[in-house]
Amino acid sequence: MLINYFQFTGYACDDLSLPGNPSTTIDWHEGLDDSFQGPDNPNTVFEIDENAYVTFSKIIHGTKVLVAVHKDFVGKSEIKGFKIPTPEEFSERIFKTFNHHWHVFGGYPYDRYTVKIKPFSESSGFSLSKIGVAFGKTTDENTPNFPPHGYVEALEGFVQHEMFHSWLGKLIQYEPNESGNLFQLETWVVEGGASYYGDRSASLIIRKSIYRKLMRQKLNSYKKALNTSLDLSVQALVEKIGPGPPANDNTQTLLYARSTIVNYLLDEELTKLGFDLDILMKRLYEDFGLTNKKWTQNDIVQILNNETNKDFSKFLNKYLLTNSKFPIKRNFKFLKHAAQCSTID
Ligand SMILES: [Zn+2]
Fold first, then answer.
1. Which SS3 state, helix, strand or coil, does residue 311 take?
2. What spacing in Å lies between the alpha carbon of 51 and ligand 1's midpoint?
3. Strand spans (E) along 90-192
4. Does CATH number 1.10.390.10 belong to domain 187-344?
5. How open is the CA angle 142-228-323, to the nearest 5 degrees?
6. How many angstroms separate the alpha carbon of residue 146 from the centre of ligand 1?
7. How far apart, in Å, are the Cα atoms of 4 and each of 14, 111, 209?
8. At what angle do helices 250-272 and 234-241 cross, to 10 degrees?
9. How far is the CA of 309 from the centre of ligand 1 (A)?
10. Residue 65 CA, ligand 1 centroid: distance in Å
């Protein structure tokens, strides 16, 4: 079977000087609120010491996208045997990723967005916020190979996932339920969406095989769990994980895998109707991201029903509340989105 991939063609199809939604941006310091997550000091982490970092910036739809790479990385082509991009290549990927995500949501409210790669010497961990991400060495010394947040993964594709969270998860937040659990049903949108779009954009921007590889990994996690004690719905997986701690164990991996696949299946359904998953992201951005309101699963159903004039509750209940088998045979298609800045390869 021939699969059509779509290639990101720089910025040729897009006028980067056009403002977005909102048309006037807000001072980025205002995004340093209690949604900041990570070990860094939020007040200083995005202040860049020009003596220690090389920086690159580009104005994209009214936002200055700033990439700061610690000088430790300059002149290196690999870390522990893994090839890494040059700071110039990396920053170009970040600009394209920002632009890609911007088009998914149709805007970004702050006047600056920062991606920072911290040095080896600095304490481990990464930080995530509405106004940028700062990557560290690893998240946890006990699991040094823990993807996604080691340097290699950060430089090689996972930054796309985390940058997506600056919108979905930070700007756009769900209403926490009463359970006290680490995850809740709405996680399928936040983590599944960030993974699905992260894989898509990494594939468009870095290497087209990434999408198929990362989506296949998720399919394999899902298949491995079939007919085992972990063959559970998204909702049941959430409850099984309970209050955590964030284990990065099989259960969490499976929750992310199932959630990502549900995003794909939903995208496929929407594509059949002449839409795509961006319609959900855009409505979440406008109705909740820009208004500071919090959303619930019920809002997702309402948005989908309103936008398509179909009833999506049965579809979502089937794949989120029961362990119904996913109708995926071997490969995931790469679904074309209307707002995607790309042409057919
Ligand atoms: Zn995530």
1. coil
2. 31
3. 112-117, 127-129, 132-135
4. yes
5. 105
6. 13
7. 22, 36, 12
8. 150
9. 30
10. 21
Chain centroid offset of residue 62 CA: 21
Gap from CA of 183 to ligand 1 centroid (Å) = 11
Q: Is the dihedral of CA 142, 159, 183, 292 positive or negative?
A: positive
| Encoded tokens for 78 | 């690999």
Q: What pTM did the predictor assign? A: 0.92
- Residue-wise pLDDT for 67-120, tens only, equals 999 998 889 887 666 677 899 999 999 999 999 999 999 999 999 999 998 886
Domain boundaries, the chain: 7-167, 187-344
Q: What token pair was written down for 146? A: 């823990």
Ligand 1 centroid from CA 148, angstroms: 9
Residue 314 CB partners (closer than 8 Å, separation 6+) = none
Cα separation values, 145 from 55, 82, 152, 289, Å: 28, 13, 10, 34
Confidence of residue 248 (pLDDT cuts 50, 70, 90): low
- The SS3 assignment for 283 reads helix
Q: Residue 97 burial by CB count (10 A; 0-12/13-18/19+): exposed, middle or buried?
A: buried
CA of 2 to the centre of ligand 1 (A): 31
Q: Which of 119, 125, 156, 152 is closest to 138 using CA atoms?
A: 125
